Amino acid sequence: MPTYFTSADGETLTPTKWAGSPWSEKQISGPVVCGAFARALERHVPPDFIPIRLTVDMFSPVLKQPFTVDTEVMRKGSRIVVVDAEIVQDGKPRARAAAVIAAAADDPRGETWHAPVDELLTPPDRTARDGGDVPLFRSGDQDWSTDYLSNQNALRKSVWQDQGHLIEGEESSGFVRAAMVAENTSMVCNWGSEGVGFINSDLTVALSRMPHSADFGLLAIDQLMGRGVAVGSAYLFDRDGAFGIATVSALSNVRRQLDLASLAEEHGWDNRGDAEGGPTPP
């Protein structure tokens, strides 16, 4: 499994080869940025509290060089904690985030309406030995596969993956893993017949609980677009059902549209992940 950063002091994060973005070799990928924010923000989670919402604004590329995540507690009450965070490189803010952290409590009495989510089809169990580090995709009613080419179409997408550990030698929490996988909402919502032509500028993920396993999935809920802007939403789900909803806003990036099928063939993503140190598979 890949690790995306090393950290000698636990604060300064130094990107590894795995942290690279498919959009540019000079910057790190969106899932890695979101994971770094989640790791910093969850340090402010009091006992018996749960992080229930993470919002990340990615308004400037985070460069593939060492950085720290600065945090500030905006509110610390008996039922809710709000924490802001920022990544600054070369004296310039690159991205910001905020987390809402709530006290755990009993559920209210009574029944409520829930949308039926029959499409949450989970893939067979697998291990890293048989390609567990490579994402599984499902388009429409097709079977799960690691084949980018057969999934480059206009059908509804699911992805199932274990993104590995954020920091070398450090176990990633469920919150960190959820943030990293949720950032791929843009990919499952905006991946079409010609690849991915939108790049997301943000992520908001709301969680009813943490994932119950290291590997879990995203299922596209909807995608709306017009005038070069797209918004998309997806369920986060594991083998016990849905546990969160993620939304992204994305901007048209026609000049650098990602042909994922061609990139997968070039870097061998379908078979073994990024063994040669190229961009991280989405």
TrEMBL record:
<dbReference type="Pfam" id="PF13622">
    <property type="entry name" value="4HBT_3"/>
</dbReference>
<feature type="domain" description="Acyl-CoA thioesterase-like N-terminal HotDog">
    <location>
        <begin position="22"/>
        <end position="100"/>
    </location>
</feature>
<dbReference type="InterPro" id="IPR029069">
    <property type="entry name" value="HotDog_dom_sf"/>
</dbReference>
<dbReference type="InterPro" id="IPR049449">
    <property type="entry name" value="TesB_ACOT8-like_N"/>
</dbReference>
<dbReference type="InterPro" id="IPR042171">
    <property type="entry name" value="Acyl-CoA_hotdog"/>
</dbReference>
<protein>
    <submittedName>
        <fullName>Thioesterase family protein</fullName>
    </submittedName>
</protein>
